[in-house]
Amino acid sequence: MRYVHTNLVARDWRALAQFYQDVFGCEAVPPERDQQGEWLDQGVGVAGLRLRGAHVRLPGHGTDGPTLEIYTYEPMLDGVRPEPNRPGFGHLAFAVDDVHATWQQVLDAGGQALGEITIKAVPGVGTLEFVYVRDPEGNIIELQKWS
């Protein structure tokens, strides 16, 4: 068994994929997808879908590493904004060299601040510097650095 991908449903898949490439060094994994048909409706369990998007490979795991599958669905339902304490998908986490610098990159690329940069000594593990931010579509990202 092997973990393969996480799907992010996006209002603008191209812009969100570019954000993850620019800020976190994710790499595009061709081809772009434009899919619809009975096979998709049957597998997903929703009739009349069309999805468009692409995969971006997450950094640090080589060419066979997991991806973010960033798709725009038609039709698209309204969603509830992700919150750190809401059941379901919580956040993506990236280990970064500089939490402050990456936090600023997220903001400069259209993301939003959520928490405050915090440092905590964890006995037997090390010192954690971390913060939660939002990508341009409101999804939560944890930036972390252990020392």
Low-pLDDT stretches: none
Would you report the number of β strands? Answer: 9
Query: CA-to-CA gap between the ends?
Result: 31 Å
> How is the main sheet built?
5 strands, mixed
Content of β-strand: 35-45%
- The geometry reads as globular
How would you spell out the order of helices and strands? EHEHEEEHEEEE
Proportion of residues in helical segments: 10-25%
What count of helical segments does DSSP give? 3
Structural class from helices and strands?
Answer: alpha+beta
Computed over alpha carbons, the radius of gyration is 17 Å
Mean pLDDT: 95
Description:
- The chain is α+β, with helices and mostly antiparallel strands.
- It is 20% helix and 39% strand.
- The protein contains three helices and nine strands.
- The strands form two sheets. Strands 5, 6, 7, 8 and 9 form a five-stranded mixed β-sheet that branches. A four-stranded mixed β-sheet has the order 1-4-3-2, sandwiched between helices.
- Strand 7 and strand 8 (126-134) form a beta hairpin.
- It is globular and about 55 Å long.
- The relative contact order is 0.19.
- The model has no long low-confidence stretch (mean pLDDT 95).
List strands and helices in order, with pairings.
Elements (H helix, E strand, L loop, with lengths): L4 E5 L3 H12 L2 E10 L1 H7 L5 E8 L9 E8 L17 E4 L3 H10 L3 E2 L4 E5 L3 E9 L5 E7 L1
